[in-house]
Amino acid sequence: MIVLYPTDLSEASAHAADWAAAMARQYHADITALHVVRPITIHEEPLADNEKERLRFEVASRFSVVPDQKREPAILIDTGQPATRILERAASLPADFIVMGTHGAGGFERLVLGSVTEKVLRKATCPVLTVPPRAHATSRLPFERILCAVDFSDCSLAAARFAFSLVEPSAAALTLVHVIEWPWEEPPPPTIEELPPEQGRALAEFRRYCEQSARTRLESLVPDSVRASRTVAVHVRNGKPYVQILQAAADDRTDLIVIGLHGRNPVDMALFGSTTNQIVRQATCPVLTLRQ
User: Which of left, alpha, beta for 28 (phi over 0: left; psi -120 to 50: alpha)?
Assistant: First the structure.
C-alpha cells in the first residue's frame, strides 16, 4: 500500500507528515512524499539538479522526527499545477491514501479551504485525509476516538466500513453519528408545546420514529467482529448536519472524522460545500473523506 503525502513545505503541510506516517504504520504502507513546483512561465522549465536536491532534502526533513518509520519515504519533485500533479501521481502510483494539510486559521482564512486541497478532494479516487494546522488541532496520535458520519447513502456506508477497518485492529473507540435535518433552521423553530396539541403529538411521534429508526439502522451496520471486541456508540442528533457533526466531534474529543463524499456528477459536486467541505474547513481534527 502507498500513502501519498503532498507538501508545499509550509508549516501546515509539515504537521500532516505525522499523520501520513501514522496511516503508513496502521496499514503497513510505504510513503511517497511529493512537492510540486509551480512554473514561473506558461512553459514548464525543468528544475536544475541542485535545486531538485535542495527540495528533496527539505521534503525529507519533514520525516526526521517521525518515530517508528521503518522505511525511508520515496521523494518526488514535480513541476506543474499542484492539484493536477497530485491527482496524476495518485493515479499512477497508485496511491491508497492521500494525506495533506489545510491552511485555515481564523476569520476569512478559516472559510477558504484552498484551491489545491478542494480540487484534490473533489477528484481523488482514493481516500483523502486532510489535517488542520497544528496550532488549531485537538487530535492525538495514534487514533483513540474516531467519529463516522452516516446518512445511509452508499458513500456514507462505505465510510462506515472504512471506519470499522480502522478500529478493528486497534484500541480506538468508534462513534457512528446520524443527523436528522428538520425543515427549519432560522428563525428558531417552535417547541412542540407551542404547536396545536394534535400537531404537537404528531410531530413528537414522528421525531421519535425517525430517531429510533436511525438508531436501529446504525446499530445494524456494526459487524459482529467489531461488536464482540468493543462497544461502538451510536448517536442520532437533530439539526444542520455539519454543525451537529462538528459538535459531536468536539463533545467526544474526536481524533479523526470519517465521512463519505457524495457523487461524481457536476450537480453532486456543486453541493460539495454543504456538509463535507464545511467539516473539512472547520474541524480541529483530521478528516478522512471517501468518494463514491
Answer: left
